[in-house]
Amino acid sequence: LMIRRPPRATPKPSSAASDVYKRQPQYDQMFASASRETNIEKNLLAAISFQESQWDPRAKSNMGVRGMMMVTLETAALVGVEKRLNPEQNIKGGAKYFSMLQNKNKIGPSEADKLSIVLASYNLGPTNIIKIASQIDSDIENVTWEDIKEKLKVTTGEELNMMDIGSYSRAQQAIDYVDRVKSYYQLMSAHACVDPKDQLTFF
After folding, report:
1. Which of 52, 82, 141, 150 is the catalytic position?
2. At the N or C end, where does the chain have fewer CB atoms within 10 A?
3. Which residues contact 127 (CB under 8 A, 6 or more apart)?
4. Which residues lie across from 165 on neighbouring strands?
5. Considering the entire predicted model, what is its pTM?
């Protein structure tokens, strides 16, 4: 006697996760506009924003950083953002700041190294990344992202003038941030059928 088992139900994403993914289309043109202005790939900007705020224009950290790209007051003044809770201003401001970091960055022998290092600078602050790179090699152009990752793994929040959360160091958070942005960028690019050659420009 064969007992026919009912098919297993396909697990559905939580309503909270579903809401997050429904947000992105309404901001897609804003990412596209910021991309045109800064020459930073649209999906990369969207991936950064997802990691920063989960595409929530009202996102706020306990350090007072706000908006889609989690822009500080200092950065907002630097890039001309008047209203950090305005998603279009915040996205363009974050994109401009990221572009500035790219243009000023001297660390890394390859384009892949440089982009990972700029992502870490966006998350951890360029001063901290330059300091770490200088401790590794006086000629920072030779310092790879892997070199910086290894150094970050043994760096405390106190050394960065930041606060660690229990055993999860602020430096490790930066490493994970870079990895997650890369992964989500690749996922979004695949979904948009972007030529893999274009992706290799970044990673």
Report:
1. 52
2. N
3. none
4. 168
5. 0.84
